[in-house]
Amino acid sequence: MLLEAFAFEECRVRQAAVDTITAEIGGRECITADEEEKLKKLLAKATDPAFRIEIKSVPKLDWSDNSKRLFFSSTVA
């Protein structure tokens, strides 16, 4: 589903605040505004439109804090 928005090597989604989800896209130095909008729409459909969705692109994801490489994690208590 996410690869429908654009090509990337790896991805993870984190929820660090009650109202915010951050998608980290690995294997991309940058993404276009159109690609970002497509990804935000897909994530809003899969979760809840009430979430504020942030997109970050990075050359490679740092998995050092998550050796299982989970697609989704939440630190909201």
Which terms summarize this structure?
77 residues, alpha/beta, 4 strands, 32% strand
Describe, in plain words, how this protein is organized in 3D:
- Helix content is 18%, strand content 32%.
- With 77 residues, the protein is α/β, with parallel strands linked by helices.
- It has a single domain, classed as Alpha-Beta Plaits.
- Strands 3-2-1-4 form a four-stranded mixed beta sheet, with helices on one face.
- Strand 1 and strand 2 form a beta hairpin.
- The longest helix has 14 residues.
- It is globular, with a radius of gyration of 12 Å.
**What structural class results from the helix and strand content?**
alpha/beta
Helix percentage:
10-25%
End-to-end distance, in Å? 28 Å
Order of helices and strands: EEHEE
Strand order of the largest sheet: 3-2-1-4
Briefly note the CATH topology name.
Alpha-Beta Plaits
Count the domains.
1
Could you describe the largest sheet, including whether it forms a barrel? 4 strands, mixed
Shape: globular
| Uncertain residue ranges | none
Mean residue pLDDT: 90
Named CATH architecture? 2-Layer Sandwich
Rg computed from alpha carbons, rounded to a whole number of angstroms: 12 Å
CATH class division? Alpha Beta
**How much of the sequence is in beta strands?**
25-35%
